[in-house]
Amino acid sequence: LTTLINDERAVVWVACNITRRHLLEAKLQYLSETDELTGAYNRRKLLDTLTQSFRLFKVREAPCAVLLMDIDHFKSINDRFGHLAGDEVLRGIARHAMAHIREGDIFARFGGEEFALLLPNTSLHAAENIAERLRVSIAGSQFLLDQDLTVTVSMGLSLIHAQDQTIEGVLHRADDALYTAKHQGRNSFISV
User: Residue 67: helix, strand or coil by DSSP?
Assistant: First the structure.
């Protein structure tokens, strides 16, 4: 801003500290992308990122895997130990999974006791290794310290395929594989 001060041209600068605004924007973004109970990303963040990965696949054919994971017999955990214990199991699964994934992977609560893991730039073989390590790791962990409880998960794994027209096709295949794993005895993963 140029103005006259004492009959001379002068430039007036106005400075404003926007740190609080940036902190508020960061907090709002975190809240909009994060599941409140578990601290994992939420379904919206996962679907947005999957949509970006889908577009990238269509342009560059960058491999991308989607893993859907459901806690086995979760209703019986709530019935036996109570809903607060069920919430602790959900939080524990999320903390455990987020500690065991790679930078750039997206772990999200997909709904209820179902989680999803997006594995960008990951081949089927590598995704299967990740799924198996995660499955074994969860089954070998204790999520309710004062209770005798083993928690297992069933998982369905799918890659984005060239013939896919939308992300729904990928999610549908992973979901079908998840239910196949459940029907075949749980505590396993199926890849398609």
Answer: strand
90-136 tens-digit pLDDT: 999 999 999 989 999 999 999 999 999 999 999 999 999 999 999 99
Which is catalytic among the residues 88, 113, 114, 168? 113
In order of 6, 19, 85, 86, 176, the CA distances from 74 in angstroms are 77, 43, 11, 7, 19
For strands 153-159 and 106-111, give the pairing: unpaired
186 token code pair: 């749980």
Residue 175 exposure: Cα atoms within 13 Å on the Cβ side: 9
Where does the pLDDT of residue 10 fall: very low under 50, low under 70, confident under 90, or very high at 90 and above?
confident
Q: Is 61 a catalytic residue?
A: no
- Gyration radius (Cα) of the chain, Å: 23
143 vs 150: CA distance, rounded Å: 8
> And the tokens for 95?
């903390």
Closest among 149, 39, 53, 147 to 99, alpha carbons compared: 39
